[in-house]
Amino acid sequence: MESEQFAGKYVELEELEELGAGRFARVCRAREKGFEKGGEVALKQISRSKQPLSLTRAEYHLLRSMRHDNIVRAFALFEDTPKPDMDTIVLELVNGGCTLFAHLGQRVEYTEATVAKYAGQLLSALQWLHSRRQAHLDLKPENILVDGEADVVKLIDFGEAVRAVPSDEVVPPVDLEFAAPELVLGKPTGSYTDVWAIGVFLYVSLSGLSPFLDDSIEETTANILKCDFCFPDEYFKEISTDVKHLLETLLRLRGEDRATAQLALTSPWFK
Are 178 and 140 in contact (CB under 8 A)? Predict the structure, then answer.
């Protein structure tokens, strides 16, 4: 659905089912009334007790400004809707709505070429985003969906991008698996934070292992802060040298030492 196709009012939308709920919002599938097929969108409903209207407006305007095939689009913002102190962003519905990891898990087997295709799409979206001095800052499996019809990935949930605060107020993430060292330490974040998350995504996709996740929060944190990872032969014996080299440029302790999304896309692995 293009934004021009949805110019109606909220009352013209019929909620169909909940797609998910997180710390800040609930997302459901909806359809324009009168359409038996098509006309479907996603509704991100955000309580003001969780996020102030100013940030919801910022997230909406950020999404409205984006024009990239691998970033979800926003069509409208309804304030105090469907009830007072709740705001709703009308979003592009990702067909299938399956997370990338779940999508890969549904396949009997997949190759490096499959992972490279999706990784290239993600890096393309990040390159576009970073070139506009913007970072996502919350890249994790549930925020990377696959459009089953078009077979493309879509980045969703740019809430952290607009919630970014000064470095002395940064709160370490609850979920550490994809968190970069600077996030763990509550230090300044940036485009390099997204690059680290892509490195973890690649590692997990290729091996089924998580490079830093351990038995406890303390051990996981220590692994991240030491940048302690390797390529066990049992899981990486058949994996190409090119992608191992790429991973080594993405998963570096200091953000300024990591490859940019633009540089990562020049890796021979994508050729």
Answer: yes
